[in-house]
Amino acid sequence: MEIITGSMTALITPFKNGKVDLVKYESLIKRQIAQGINAVVPVGTTGESATLSFNEHKECIEVAVAACKGSNTKVIAGAGSNATNEACELAKHAQDVGADGILSITPYYNKPTQEGLYQHFKAIANSVEIPFVLYNVPGRTSVDLEANTAIRLFDDVKNIYAIKEATGSLERAICLISQRKDLLVFSGDDAIDFPMLASGAKGIISVTANLLPNLKSQLVNSVFEGDFEKAKQINEDLYALNSVLFCESNPIPIKAAMYLAGLLDTLEYRLPLLAPSSETMKKLEKTLEKYEVIK
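Structure (tokenized):
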């Protein structure tokens, strides 16, 4: 099993006239490859997966796999749902079309017990053979995959090798790292990427990398090379952007920022998400003046 680490981008999903713009999607992924990202993560929550149809979800994975073929950039496909059987189907499709790994979020709304979470993730991981990344973001799903449950899954299921921790808690990350050195932790909160990596995390799954993959890959590479001062400086330089990109629900601000930067031709979302307020747009415009976005 090939272990995937490093800089990873939680891809947005571009829309045009209400449909997924697969041509633009491919070009955005190729931009990620050109700027040194180690892996792309299509149709995670940043990709508005909750409002995509099954067919759209599968098409996005297929486009990502095709775009990354022959490059050094891997594909960790989003395969999450609040219905275990649906997540299994998405995971199997991702494996069948050549994805390098799977990312699966904690089920939203259902609020299962820890045992329910264990059985849910075990079933999805056992439905495929490729590497599997757990995804914990209790602020969005209202359920927390507790450290003991994540460790139990790692111990019991051979292809579960990592967890994307988006609790915002360094303590949680250290709790996991200190107990299982081979259970890899990925930062799921852009603002704390550097302290997470400095504490032993082995990668990031970033929203900001949609806009600045070059800097996010440099940040991770600097830590891996032992240049903590450079990594810390990049993290601090990105703070203003990391902060404003979460002033409204993700992915509303990141898509607006990409539109303002000329990376998206249209600014479209799927209801119930809407375009950002005029105040947010002004904040984004002002913040983007501080950064060079390489197209």
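The chain has a mean pLDDT of 97. Residues 54-68 form the longest helix (15 residues).
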